[in-house]
Amino acid sequence: MSTAPDLSTTYLGLSLSGPVIASSGPLTRDVESMLKLEAAGAAAVVLPSLFQEEAEAEEMQAYELAELADGFAEFASAPLPEQELDNVGTGVHLRRLRHAKEALKIPVIASLNGKDVGGWAHYAKELEDAGADALELNLYRVNANPLVTAKEVEDIYVRIVAAVRAEISIPMAVKVSSHFTAFSHFASRLVGAGADALVLFSGLYGTDIDLAARQIKPSVPLTTSDRVRLPMRWIGILDAQLPDTDLAATSGLHTWEDLAKLLLVGADVACTTSAVIKNGPAAITRMLEGLSAWMTEYEYESVAQLRGSMNQRSAADAGAYERDVYIKTITSTPVIL
Amino acid sequence: MQFDQKWSTMDGNEAAARVAHALSEVVAIYPITPSSPMAEYCDAWSAAGRTNIWGSIPEVVEMQSEGGAAGALHGAVTKGVLGTTFTASQGLLLMVPNMFKIAGELTPAVIHVAARALATHALSIFGDHSDVMLCRGTGWAILGATSVQEAHDCALVAHAATLRSRIPFLHYFDGFRTSHEENKIALLSNDDLRALVREEDVIAHRLRGLTPDRPMLRGTAQNPDAFFQGREASNRFYDAVPGIVQECFDELAERTGRRYSLVEYYGAEDAERVIVIMGSGWGTTQEAIDELNARGEKVGALNVRLYRPFPVEAFMAALPRTVKSIAVLDRVKEPGDAGQPLHEDVVLSLFENADALPAMPRVIAGIYGLGSKDYTPAMAAAVYAELAKDAPKKRFTVGVNDDVTHLSLDYDSSFKPDLGVITAVLYGLGSDGTVGSSKNTVKIIGSDPGRYAQGYFVYDSRKSGSSTVSHLRFGDKPINSAYLIDEADFVAVHQFGLLTQMPTLDIAKRGAKVLINSPFPADETWAELPVEVQQIILDKGLEVYVIDAQAVAHKVGMGKRINTVMQPCLFYLSGIVAQDAAIAKIKKSIEDTYGRKGRVIVERNWAAIDSAIEALHKLEIPGQVVGSQHRMPPVPDSAPDFVKTVTQKMLFGLGEEIPVSGMPIDGTWPTATAQYEKRGIAEEIPIWDPSLCIDCGKCAMVCPHAAIRIKVMPTDALEGAPESFKSKDYRDRTLAGHKLVVQTAPDDCTGCGVCVDTCPAMSKTQVKHKAIDMENRLVHLDAERANWDFFLGIPEVKRDLVRHDQVKGVAQLQPLFEFSGACSGCGETPYVRTLTQLFGDRMLVANATGCSSIYSGNLPTTPYAVDAAGRGPAWSNSLFEDNAEFGLGMRLAWEQQHAEARRYVAELRDAIGADLADALLAADQSTEPGIFAQRERVAQLKEVLPGIEGAKARALESLADELVAKSVWIIGGDGWAYDIGYGGLDHVLASGVNVNILVLDTEVYSNTGGQSSKATPRGAVAKFATAGKVTGKKDLGLIAQTYGNVYVAQVAMGANQQQVVRAMLEAEAWDGPSLIIAYSTCISHGIDMETSMTHQGEAVASGYWPLYRFRPSEDKNAKPLQLDSKAPNGKVEAYLASEPRFAMLKRSDPARAEALWKRAHADVEERWRYYSQMAAVERALTVDGAHGADAPAEHTEK
Fold first, then answer.
1. Which of B302, B438, B946, B1139 is deepest in the core (most CB within 10 A)?
2. Do domains B6-219+226-256 and B263-409 have the same CATH topology?
3. What digits encode the pLDDT tens for the residues B70-111?
4. Which residues contact B139 (CB under 8 A, 6 or more apart)?
5. What is the CATH number of the domain that holds A261?
6. Which range of residues forms the domain containing residue A111?
7. Rounded to an integer, what distance in angstroms lies between the CA atom of residue B799 and that of residue B914?
8. Mapping DSSP to helix (H, G, I), strand (E, B) and coil, where does residue B1074 land?
9. Residue B747's closest CA among B717, B793, B697, B783?
10. How far is A53 from chain B (nearest CA, A)?
11. Cβ–Cβ < 8 Å for B1152, B1145
12. Do A74 and B33 contact (CB within 8 A), yes or no?
């Protein structure tokens, strides 16, 4: 076969030139590096999350600063007139979104992490109005209240998704963590509430400890290829269970092999952050080249052809199948003494 | 005629600045209270691209002083552009030399002045006409506005008339009273401006400008043959000014309907008694006139609006022919003058025009309103009453009780014209937003057609926990009452604690409504009120409402900002709007104000408004006084009499009652009075856990208020200690077996938390628990008060038993600077306090005007203290610009006295006794024990001297103490050292004289509200640099190093306390000029002041603020520059991002921020590279010591 395989795919109703999109991360913070990602083959970009708390805290801080002047007689001077702090709160996100839309040819997906239902809906609308092609809801929170049950937690998420769905008309993906006991059921509830796509899974944002200062410090460890197994499993399951829902794999995508595996189990796209942070935008190019070469070798014509060909549609009970694989894995692992 | 006018509510500064900016091409600025906001507006408007009426953006340039601003103004106008500046008080004085020049050259220019008192026996930031009156001989026209509206209108007339007349104009209005009063005004349109500022005059001015294309020369030196005639050549221009100003007034009237005249009469047509007045007292006098004439009297008043050139003709024309007696009121005191300035002009006008009147009226002269002393209708009535007497006082004062020279008039304070306005008085704290929301309320009401509102705000002098009183009037007619409300229809107390600290409900009218923010449930609040307050409520039949505003604010996410909770209650209760419309109105205003700034602010404010009305409760008044809470507790019995009589009155807010006899005659006040002011403003105070403490002393070192102290003592000193008193074994070889105590002063601590942030000793089992933790003050109050009292009674450690060169030791030395009113968490005061611990008993301080002079010297109480022997720092403030020179003078004076004393000791050697005399002369005072030994010798000398006959012995008695070394410290901020005082500072550094200079570098003019200085770093946003400062920080330390013989250190308490101590000791020991530049965090940085020291640490670690010491040496191989901090850690951007003063720019202009931050980072790297090279450079002094070869031998001893 002489023609190169067709790598295009669709995700969230958007036609994409290839199956790799750049997740929100340091490289999607400014237009200049997003242009590099585009040139390297990223089929879409996801902007950094707009965090409701952060936007609100900034707004409140600006409010406080503006009112600092009341302190004492000599300080009682003019407020800063006509000083519009456009980059306070949501300003920075909306501006970045508008700039990205102007500069990029590929779709721009905004990301939102709200705090309360009203906030989610409000900010989602702001992002839609600013021109986002689609929206990714980043449902990240640590549910540590011992009085709140799993069902209640799920209900909150579902309510958020429904509220945002009611507010906006652009396609919407929902990014969740894997920490749900009955994930299949929960996933179908999210779809029922209006999610057009699921993004699996949000990364581990743990805290770290500075041993010298004995202070907690934030830390986002970069992923490795090992992490790809978890989305692989669930995409394999969900692609079968939710055939009309788009699935994006995130966390762990580093090599063309990872990419090929994710597509085989049913991912519509795969998102990458860590690989790009480590190796630059060229990491995407290498993945696409690798995929293309492999497809050529095995005579695949298009991504559409291979996508989902190894999902668990054939397995009557995905759980039992996975358990079987688990048992085999454990028993066949050689013991090293 | 109907005029289509836009209305707006603003203060006098904005009213004047709007016109000034629209009519200027070059604006030279410099901050000085109360005129700074005019300059701030212009800077911000130009930064935002606002244009003048010709479509260009005025160039706004900040200068290094008002003298500089006047020079730049002179240069601009001499080139033919339209120039202006803004100033007040001492600032205007610095412009005087240029004013003579500009006027002498007949060059149009305008200075807008927020008239303010000149510093005499004391500094006052408040209003009177001392500054303006001092300019009456400069040749400038002087035009006075009496109200906010007039500040707007007269600003235009000044700009128009200067171009038409070629005479420069000083346009003034009263500082604070008009400059800071919020009032509703009709705005001038750009068409109005264009109509009065005629294009042909602008072009004529331009064409007179200097240009090499039509070369000419100004500023010649003239000889006796020519100078005088030249001076006379401009006469006709002055003659024309009154006509021109009236012409402008008339044109303004035609366009706006607002009619003004040069000298305006108000009152009965056939008035027999007339007051002549200028400035904001005009409206107040008119109110008195209306009331008196309604009672059948025949009185009137003249307002002299154009004061220079004095419009004699207009004055005579305006004066009713029936006048029999005139009182001229001057808002200035010129001691020793035959009269007072306006008075003299009036008398001369009358004298020379006696023919115009049927009979020469009697003229008396009064002084009123100095330093913003209130001037009320009752005082005007008293003046009229005086005029009616057969033998009135020829010279009088009104507004004070002069029980010494008996010049003051008595007045009947119940004289209160009914103006049909609703009055509201709100008591709050500077930090709680009461003033902001009051201004907002005035704007909301003012935005209603046909309604008027006025707001005036009184602040106390402290920067932490300062109270504010908002005086608000609302009505259906313009409000020109330029005096405080003394009977209010509505009173709100925004902080419960204020009910105990000062008079509050005393101001309520009978039956008035009262709103109290109470942390107690409604049914428990009554018993918590001081009994005096309960009595007032009962006596006046007040209707009291309570709300727990803190709880509501907290619930809706507004933190401590209770203003949005209290404001709707004001709307709801006070009757200023219909109750059902109140909530909608205030919500709309919130949306209008904050809608664009973000959703959360609007949402939370709205939630606060809704919750507020729900949380409002009417207080059931039991009909009798209960409980035993009293307000205004007296100072302790141990306080000196002066504190008990004078200071206490001021502390209670009753300073107005102090008569002239109660005041020091020369501005000299006792020190050590802050200890008597128990403010108790902290919510949380540090509580010590001795089991974790490592004796390091860092907490006491960083305390801005000297409110956490350390003492080391023998065990038996703990006998009789309260049960709650804690101590621990002190780990020290010298003081083995001693105990160490860390104690907080619970009523003096401001709760800033800096000590806890700094404490390095954390629990092994719970890292959040440190050796000191912030805990609820009220829970610990009783115990800690007892502990503090006991702690004070424990003797101070003997100074020679602790090491002065170690933080741990210094922390134990008694601070002689305590409990200042500086901002909570102030970054400056820890340095000042440390100096007093090291050298306090022998310190002379020259303090530049600024924050440090205010927290050091602002009444009612002052923080410099005394030790057990009664010694302590002696402190004075001269000016802003001359502080280095002031300190140099002090040092030279001591050197002179010291030399003289030595001469007498030598001459009286035999009489004194050879041993003692020789020991006195040979004393080595380079160490503290040496100084103490010399003090002992001086004590012996004083015993001997009375027995010795002769003038020399008498002289030596008066000079004996000067045989002991003194330590002269010149202290000030960066505005002084880098800008206005730099010339003097440089001269003093060059003098070689042994003075020590401490620059408290906050990198902005902190005291005037955070304006940019040359110490402001690149990329920082400050007032006057709202777009982010482009130029880098001036390297003052490096400049000083070039002298070679100047000791220079750059320090940061939050980064390296040990280095601070070392630098202070070395600076003091260096027998020559020393300069310490101390990084001082400031509220204007926008940071959380609790982390003040952490920010300093990061500033140093990032290389933003490198630490070093430059130690001059005679050693040929010496490398004087020693770097005391590590190489930059590469995290400059992270540091910048952590401080709102930089981070703001990221938000307002990210591209510019990025560019400036990159350069700021490069600055840091490059400076370090340069310093590192300098640290390797060898340099030696070429002469012995710092003084140089020509220094007298005595001076080099140490």
1. B438
2. yes
3. 999 999 999 999 999 999 999 999 999 999 999 999 999 999
4. B99, B100, B103, B104, B167, B168, B238
5. 3.20.20.70
6. 9-332
7. 30
8. strand
9. B783
10. 10
11. yes
12. yes
| Of residues A127, A54, A138, A124, the one with CA closest to residue A89 | A54
Tell me how many domains chain A contains: 1
Please answer yes or no on whether A69 and B436 come within 8 Å at the CB atom. Answer: yes
In the structure encoding, which two tokens stand for residue B804, read together?
A: 């002065």
What's the pLDDT at A336? 58
Structural domain boundaries in chain B: 6-219+226-256, 263-409, 422-618, 900-963
Summarize pLDDT for B365-414 with one digit per residue, the tens. 999 999 999 999 999 999 999 999 999 999 999 999 999 999 999 999 99
| Domain made up of B422-618: CATH architecture | 3-Layer(aba) Sandwich (3.40)
For residue A122, the chain B residue with the least C-alpha distance is B599
A337 is a domain residue: no
**How do beta strands B325-330 and A246-249 pair?**
unpaired
The 3-state DSSP class for residue B655 equals helix
Burial class (CB in 10 A: 0-12, 13-18, 19+), B713: buried
CB atoms B1009 and A70 under 8 Å: no
pTM of the model: 0.91
Token look-up 């696409």 returns A288
Nearest chain B residue to A211, by CA: B767
Per the domain annotation, does A21 fall within a domain? Answer: yes
- Give residue B1188's pLDDT: 47
Whether A2 is covered by a domain: the verdict is: no
Q: Express each pLDDT in B435-475 by its tens digit.
A: 888 998 999 999 999 999 999 999 876 777 788 999 999 99
Do the chains contact at A67 and B762, CB–CB below 8 Å?
no
Residue in A67, A76, A89 nearest the CB of B180: A76
Q: Do B596 and A84 touch (CB under 8 A)?
A: yes
Catalytic site residues of B?
33, 66, 116, 1007
User: In angstroms, rounded to a whole number, what is the distance separating the alpha carbons of residues A21 and B998?
Assistant: 58
Contact (CB<8Å) B1009/A75: yes
- Determine which of A33, A77, A85, A99 to mutate to test the interface with B (most B C-beta atoms within 10 Å): A77
Handedness of CA A326, A331, A333, A337 (dihedral sign): positive
What is the per-residue pLDDT across A178-218, written as a single tens digit (0 to 9) for each?
889 999 999 999 999 999 999 998 876 667 888 887 888 87
More confident: B5 or B194:
B194
Return the structure tokens found at B419. Answer: 């103006």
Q: Which residues of A touch B (CB under 8 A)?
A: 55-56, 58-65, 67-78, 80-92, 95, 122, 214-215
Q: CA B1114, CA B1116: separation in Å to the nearest integer?
A: 6
Element (H, E) at B989: helix B982-991
Q: What is the pLDDT of residues B764-804, one digit of tens each?
A: 888 889 999 999 999 999 999 999 999 999 999 999 999 99
Mean pLDDT of chain B: 94
Identify whether A3 is part of a domain.
no
Residue B866, number of CB atoms within 10 A of its CB: 16
Among the four given CATH numbers 3.40.190.10, 3.40.1080.10, 3.40.50.920, 3.40.710.10, the one describing domain B263-409: 3.40.50.920
At residue A224, φ and ψ (nearest 5 deg) are -125, 175
Nearest to B173 by CA among B348, B268, B35, B339: B35
Fold of B6-219+226-256: Rossmann fold (3.40.50)
Q: Do A65 and B457 touch (CB under 8 A)?
A: no
Nearest chain B alpha carbon to A93: B1147
Query: From the centroid of its chain, how far is CA B710?
Result: 32
pLDDT mean over B329-342: 96
Percent helix / strand / coil, chain A, rounded to 5: 45, 15, 35
pLDDT at B145 exceeding the cut of 90 = yes
- pLDDT, tens only, B833-870: 999 999 999 999 999 999 999 999 998 899 999 999 99
